Amino acid sequence: MADAVERAAPAPETAGDAFIQVRGLRKSYQMGETTVHALAGVELDIPRTSFTVVMGPSGSGKSTLLHLVGGLDRPTAGEIVLGGQRVDTLNENDLAVFRRTVIGFVFQTFNLVSSMTAVENVAFPMRFANISRRQRRERALELLDRVGLANRAFHRPAELSGGQQQRVAIARALVNDPQVILADEPTGNLDTAASNEIVEMLLDLHHAGRTVLVVTHDLRMRGLSTDTVYLLDGKVVDEDSYLAISTLTMGRGTVTT
């Protein structure tokens, strides 16, 4: 991780204009007779080409925010603008196209298809983009080579380590050359060495000009980001408020970050 710290992103003023804009974002879920307010009026600007980290305790709304920004879920209220496009008003067909062409997703649980080889998993999203089978295979092999897995291209997920599976997932996220990478706890299921590899890859994507938004509990990532967003109880708070609550909770024996 030391090398990654030295290669940390430029100061925020060099990150460019806002690429993701969130206004008055609310998300509520009905659980029996109880209404759970996952997000309670979030206001947020994510700079273009930034490496932004979202931190908060479990239940603070981090993953909900990421899923709404990525169009995987619909907000109860509010606006989401990504790359100049209102995401929250798109119909299902347009939203599917938007996700496929603009966004690359990386998840904690990898979300690979167990019956497919690595190259088949990476190539799969391109089946919906009118790309020939030969081109899909070539592109997938190229990306697997880029993430250091050319020699594992024809292995299934069960034959790969956790770090290798996450690298396959990153390769898959890149197949349609997305402008933004949304990563939900991408190192959560990995050991330290594999985590460092994934962080390096995310930093490389950022330095290559992509906007990277990462939800994480990993405090180390905060030192690598251009911007850090702190969430508590579905609201954005300042760093002092977040650290005060985190310190208080840790003092009671529970680590929340």
Task: Based on the model shown, name its key terms.
8 helices, 6-stranded mixed β-sheet, Rossmann fold, globular, 257 residues
**SSE order in H/E notation?**
HEEEHEEHEHHHEHEEEH
Quaternary status:
single chain
**CATH classification, class level:** Alpha Beta
CATH architecture descriptor: 3-Layer(aba) Sandwich
Average pLDDT score: 88
CATH topology annotation? Rossmann fold
Residue share in helices?
25-40%
Question: In this structure, how is the largest beta sheet organized?
Answer: 6 strands, mixed
N-end to C-end Cα span: 19 Å
- Strand fraction equals 25-35%
Describe this structure in words.
With 257 residues, the chain is of the alpha/beta class. The protein has one domain: P-loop containing nucleotide triphosphate hydrolases (Rossmann fold, 3-Layer(aba) Sandwich), CATH 3.40.50. Helix content is 33%, strand content 25%. Strands 6-7-8-3-9-10 form a six-stranded mixed β-sheet, sandwiched between helices. A four-stranded antiparallel β-sheet has the order 2-1-4-5, covered by helices on one side. α7 links the parallel β7 and β8. The C terminus is likely disordered.
Q: Helix and strand layout, with pairings?
A:
Elements: H1 2-6, E1 18-31, E2 34-47, E3 51-55, H2 62-69, E4 77-82, E5 85-86, H3 92-102, E6 103-107, H4 118-123, H5 133-146, H6 162-173, E7 180-184, H7 192-207, E8 211-215, E9 227-232, E10 235-237, H8 239-251
Parallel strand pairs: 3-8, 3-9, 6-7, 7-8
Antiparallel strand pairs: 1-2, 1-4, 4-5, 9-10
